[in-house]
Amino acid sequence: MSSQFLWYIPNEVSPGHRGDDVGDDHNSLDTLAGHARALEDSGFSGALIGTGWGRPDTFTVASALAARTTTFEPLVAIRPGYWRPANFASAAATLDHLSEGRLRINIVSGKDHLEAYGDTDGVQADRYERTREFIELTRKLWTEEDVTYRGKHFTVEDSTVVPRIRRRGGRLHPTIYFGGASASAEKVAAQQADVQLFWGEPLDDIAERIDRLRDLENAEGRELPPLEFGLRVTTVVRDTSAEAWRDAQARVEEMAQQQTRTDATRRVGYNPHRKNAVGQQRLYDLAARGDVLDDNLYTAPGRVGGGGAGSTWIVGSAEEVAKTLQRYEDLGITHFVLSDTPYRDEIRRQGRQLLPLLRR
């Protein structure tokens, strides 16, 4: 299977996300659509659009961008608990129909401001069991008619979603991406996800997780096609290695200064639960093993306020970053969600310098 390359589009209320350009129109439709069209022009398949309470609604943003583009594929992050399966399946089927099959979905189980939209804080195992039911029922609603489902968390009676998802080649429905590093999360991925997304961990760690997930697929009696794997990571690409490391280190120094000046937890849309997630803690723990792991996986950002895909960066010239990503590809990674800031400028730079090396 040939690898697929996507980007990240921030849908934030506050400007300047992870060092992005600051402007009053940073989240206007014209600006975000400009990102999406630049991705089309640069050869990226599409982009992840993040979710969380206190941010613009992801599905609305994705729908608007799909209407302004022709090939751009939004990877829409959504949360069970914010959505109920039948409502979500219907909305997704509609957007997939209107965009002529361009929709992808990223299921997020991590907690955010649950009480703000009426969700409840359950124990981890129960939360992931709810996610498993959510994905299973959504898939049924996309592929079957007159669905009756009685689970612990969700039930439907004689439910048929319209418009029906149209089969397009081997694609039966929007690809379902899923992340999570806990035992409960990996069990859900092995049973129900199409793609398991990893953050930027060292190659040996990723290889270990892939092996474990493949064993889990067999143990859980997976009935779906084999699980695929993806990498969500920041890629700092410059003309030379020295320039890339100089810029990366300068940015980390600036992040450290900002951390001492402000309380990062107070920014609009900040998720106070993410730092306690198993996957996030794995990234923070990497810094204890060294600032640079493998050839060019930079862990220092996680020590100074970087979170999620901003915790570890792959740094170097286009050739060096491409070589590293190809080593992940050799492990079985076939979906790459890359990014760097300023987002718009880096779409063009990495589309021009990095993508041709990866596709070759």
Describe this entry's structure for a reader.
- The chain is α/β, with parallel strands linked by helices.
- It has eleven helices and 13 strands.
- The strands form two sheets. An eight-stranded parallel beta barrel has the order 1-2-3-4-7-8-9-13, surrounded by six helices. It has a two-stranded antiparallel sheet with strand order 5-6.
- The two termini are 14 Å apart.
- The relative contact order is 0.14.
Descriptive tags:
single chain, 360 residues, alpha/beta, 8-stranded parallel β-barrel, 40% helix, globular, SsuD_RutA_monooxygenase, monooxygenase, Methanesulfonate monooxygenase, flavoprotein
Largest sheet: 8 strands, parallel, barrel
What is the global morphology? Answer: globular
Helix content: 40-55%
| pLDDT averaged residue by residue | 92
Q: Total strand count, please?
A: 13
- In N-to-C order, the SSE pattern is EHEHEHEHEEEHEHEHHEEEHEHH
Structural class label: alpha/beta
Radius of gyration: 20 Å
Strand order of the largest sheet: 1-2-3-4-7-8-9-13
Query: Would you identify the regions where 5 or more consecutive residues have pLDDT less than 50?
Result: 264-271
Termini distance? 14 Å
Task: Quickly count the helices.
Answer: 11
